[in-house]
Amino acid sequence: xxxxxxxxxxxxxxxxxxxxxxxxxxxxxxxxxxxxxxxxxxxxxxxxxxxxxxxxxxxxxxxxxxxxxxxxxxxxxxxxxxxxxxxxxxxxxxxxxxxxxxxxxxxxxxxxxxxxxxxxxxxxxxxxxxxxxxxxxxxxxxxxxxxxxxxxxxxxxxxxxxxxxxxxxxxxxxxxxxxxxxxxxxxxxxxxxxxxxxxxxxxxxxxxxxxxxxxxxxxxxxxxxxxxxxxxxxxxxxxxxxxxxxxxxxxxxxxxxxxxxxxxxxxxxxxxxxxxxxxxxxxxxxxxxxxxxxxxxxxxxxxxxxxxxxxxxxxxxxxxxxxxx
Length: 325
Hints:
Belongs to the LysR transcriptional regulatory family. Helix 5 packs across helix 9. A hairpin with a 4-residue loop joins strand 1 (49-51) and strand 2. The termini are far apart. The chain has helices spanning 3-16, 19-26, 30-44, 60-87, 100-117, 169-175, 193-196, 230-238, 248-256, 286-299, 306-310; strands at 49-51, 56-58, 92-97, 121-126, 140-145, 153-167, 189-191, 200-205, 213-218, 225-226, 243-247, 261-262, 270-279. The protein contains eleven helices and 13 strands. Strands 3, 4, 5, 6, 7, 10, 11, 12 and 13 form a nine-stranded mixed β-sheet that branches.
């Protein structure tokens, strides 16, 4: 008797609720399905199913056996998939959830290189708004969080991003370049509403492992612009409206092109960590694994800010910041 085949048939009979339906699902003759289950029961020396003319039900032994059978079949299928992946190129559809600013300012410009490497992988990016934990309906979630939230998932650190005080050279030429955080209230500000409602912002200068100087700067009563939309803040800063605080992954290209200039480069505001999260499964398809590797390659996968480093204006004081505020 092919015991593994009989196990599959038994599980399908239970799932479909009858021998005839299982036979149709498996494209087998009904007598063959009945015979395989009977042979399995005979081999085990136990009745697994109770059959009547109207219904089919599991015996107590059958319930316990089915639970183990499902685990065995899952392991066998996983092993087969792993073996197949070892010989096949990554292929298929990959669903990614991430914040809009990461999709616009980072992922989009790297996608041609990924597509050239893996032409048989198609990518769907959903960017509904801020993302601070994973959604297990997606293959990978890129999210921003200072600490990993609780949950049944696995996550890899992609990078750390500082929120950088910056402005256009045109604005700074007109209004002057602040030399100390206490000069910021004299300038026009482009901020999100939650920052506008705070009494002040806290800046740090110096190594975080001791001796850092801390300065709290009061907020202006009126700001040039308050918006929840990060790309509106970015566009306003580029246009010379005022000084903004933006994540380094948003302004990397603008810094490189000198469209924006870092203000107070020796002072730090706060930072966030970017993570790639995946549902907690023992097996990841090849397309998911190669895209995760690609993310780690382009972002660095370390507890540092690669975008400020690439732009040549990294903060001299390395290391994660204390909690914002």
